[in-house]
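Researcher: We plan to redesign the surface later, but first we want a full-length starting point. Tokens attached.
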């Protein structure tokens, strides 16, 4: 059943415990609330479309004041998503249909999400059929193809994906590997062997002589630093040195 009514007596069982196996979206509402009457049909539609993957639980705040106080409900409609026994997402007030759908999508993985998580070539290709501009699937597949010695198809998959540091970095690497006037084999070898610090040092050292390939060296560097995370000591220092080299 996609939609259930929940009270204070069964909230623990039907929301907290149930959410440990199936995500539960709780709609806090009241009969007098006109915005609630506008939002609830959107929630019910979204839940019905994901039958078996998510449950919508409706809580009448007037009839269940203790639950409302416990979750600090100060305005309705209020919607909270539970997964693993805790609140993982929420919003207050009426939302447009597209926003409601995105809310449920974040809670319930799509088919493409599952395929990307599987990570094999066939799954990644299917994910891209479903979502052609999905960067994580394209980068993962392109990486497999590149390692297998198929750079042309790998480049085709990632070169059009702007706004994705991993995609731009891999595309830049493939283009740089084709250049005879820039020797970066040691940098790529270090990167592939799990030594990003050495790879960064070698790429930074190559920047002054990179000429027309300067932007691609920068893209490759940024992708490595992005993979390390903003708090990584190497990333902080390398970003400073990269900025100094460029400007």
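Model: Full-length starting sequence:
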């Amino acid at each position: 059943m996609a939609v259930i009514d929940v009270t204070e007596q069964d909230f623990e069982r039907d929301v907290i415990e149930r959410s440990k196996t199936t995500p539960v979206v709780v709609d806090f509402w009241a009969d007098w609330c006109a915005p609630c009457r506008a939002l609830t049909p959107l929630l019910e539609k979204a839940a019905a479309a994901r039958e078996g993957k998510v449950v919508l639980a409706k809580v009448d705040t007037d009839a269940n004041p203790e639950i409302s106080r416990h979750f600090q409900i100060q305005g309705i409609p209020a919607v909270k998503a539970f997964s693993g026994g805790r609140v993982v997402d929420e919003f207050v007030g009426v939302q447009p249909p597209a926003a409601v759908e995105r809310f449920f999508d974040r809670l319930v993985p799509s088919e493409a999400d599952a395929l990307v998580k599987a990570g094999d070539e066939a799954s990644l290709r299917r994910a891209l059929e479903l979502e052609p501009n999905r960067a994580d699937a394209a980068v993962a597949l392109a990486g497999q193809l590149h390692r297998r010695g198929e750079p042309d198809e790998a480049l085709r998959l990632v070169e059009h994906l702007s706004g994705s540091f991993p995609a731009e970095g891999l595309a830049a690497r493939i283009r740089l590997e084709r250049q005879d006037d820039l020797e970066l084999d040691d940098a790529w070898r270090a990167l592939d062997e799990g030594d990003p610090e050495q790879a960064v040092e070698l790429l930074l050292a190559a920047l002054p002589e990179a000429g027309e390939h300067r932007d691609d060296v920068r893209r490759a560097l940024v992708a490595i630093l992005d993979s390390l995370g903003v708090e990584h000591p190497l990333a902080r220092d390398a970003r400073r040195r990269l900025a100094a080299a460029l400007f």
